[in-house]
Amino acid sequence: MADEVQEFDVVIIGGGPGGYAAALYGAAAGLHIAMIERDKVGGTCLHRGCVPAKEFLETAHVRRTIEHAGAFGFAVEGLNTDFAVSQRRKGEVVDKLHKGLSGLLKGRKVTIFEGTGRLEADRTVRVVDGTDAGVVCRGRDVILAAGSVPRTLPGFDLDGTFVLTSDEFLDLSSLPASAVVIGGGAIGCEFASMLADMGTTVTILEGLPTILAGCDSEVVNVIQRVFKKRGIEVRTGVNVTGHTPVAGATTTAVHVEGGDDVEVEAVILAVGRRPRSEGLLGEGTGVEVNDRGFVVADPVMRTANPHVYAIGDIVANTPQLAHVGFAEAIVAIKSILGEPATPVDYDRVPWAIYSNPEVAFCGLTEAAAKERGYEVVVKKDPFGGNSRAQIIGETDGVVKIIAEKRPDGSAGQILGVHMAGPWVTEQLGAGYYAVNWEATAEEAAGLIQPHPSLSETFGETLLALAGRGLHIG
Ligand code: FAD
Question: What homologous superfamily is domain 357-466 in, according to CATH?
């Protein structure tokens, strides 16, 4: 007998930020939705990504605050660190958010099936394992939101002892005394920063000529300089070939081609993430997958099959960010509803890196703007002169804004806003609006920043860009 097929408006495979945002947004629009999740709703972001990583960066922030308390007149002696407490706290934060999300989905009447979903022909999804194995459902439309998993490197097999990906690292209940972080991207720099603040000796090994590739070079310079000051060794343009545990010791020697080994207690791989597309597609789905396993989608997130959409980390050639998944979810649901859907402008999404100092940016870097043929006007203001930065004692950083040069040489439309410094991840919003509303320097400079605030550095950079800075030329 053929399996009974349950009918829905939309069936979503994967309950991470992409999948759950599509479920909540679709349900808010009155769609009857099923979501299939093989692990826990919340996905990488909530359980193994953004939230746990930022919890540990906050742990590092608290420790820095205690260490610098003497400057404010507090004598703190004998600082004892128990990372297991932080690990437990992380668990509590994640659990609370997980319960909240589960409640929201239930409240919106999203049907959740537990198990691994596989798309088959005719918009049918089969649950192939887990509690709901055997369930078959069909959507008028289907959304693929299966996300991604950490990549590994040849020569660095996960061994449960020395080599960790972000998944294992974020579950540690004690921290190593020394570590190599392979990969100097956003995740690698966040981990290195957090470890250094917690007292671990850290080396970043990066294959590219720079860490934080894709960030504006002046932002990278700030991070490199501060990392160096804090004792983080950064080696770029290096090729790691493997590692050999040191006999009779709790360390392993990481081999760097043409260079000295680095002996450490832990090797953390932060070398990117691959799509979780194995087994996702059965026969005859009509969905195109590229040679790296990512699903190919058009600007409104439709795959080669017009009734199958893809969103989030699994989509080819898009930034792997939770909020990009949210935005794509809204685009996909609007397309399904037949409403006008503005595609995500990937050149202008906000980026936030929660290292110490933080990094945040939106729009084109100076180099990218020039590569695209723009003549530019650039202004920058360091945080050193900002009163709030001095009050909180965190003056490393810069705001840099790039605008298109008008024929008369003045600054026109703002093309990019780049920040490194204290709490810049919370300050980028104004820069994001400026870039996306295609504001000119004068328009954005006409708006007021509160005093004393860190955001005044952004305001001051805008004034200078518009031709008359109060503090900078
Ligand atoms: P995922 O979050 O990976 O979710 C996919 C879900 O689908 C999972 O729950 C999985 O179990 C499920 N699934 C997979 N296959 C199937 C199947 N066949 N059937 C049923 N279920 C399936 N992004 C930011 O924006 N800001 C940050 O600060 C940030 N920090 C990060 C820090 C770390 C350490 C990491 C690893 C990532 C970070 N990210 C950050 C990236 C962010 O976590 C991802 O971009 C986001 O989680 C992607 O969402 P998604 O829904 O596409 O996929």
Answer: FAD/NAD-linked reductase, C-terminal dimerisation domain (3.30.390.30)
